[in-house]
Predict the structure.
Amino acid sequence: MRQTYIISYDIPKKNQNYEKVYDYLKGFGTWAHITESLWGIKSEKSASEIRDDLVKIAGTEANIFVLRSGVESAWKNVLCSNKWLQDNL
């Protein structure tokens, strides 16, 4: 079953290849770029599988956080549409 995941990352300057990270996250089909380094995706993968994929792309020094979406959320001034968040979180 597809779950919604929230992904946050910080990539060290020497490894900054955001386009590959963006392409990976957009590859899930259902995604939102929520803030500069925060995304929401829908996936059948586990959080650890997504994390491991991102480590391969962003490097082992990148800070990566993957969270399966929970029960409650609130936001303000996000980059994506409020509708995506309402429908998927």
In short: The chain has a mean pLDDT of 93. The longest strand covers residues 3-10.
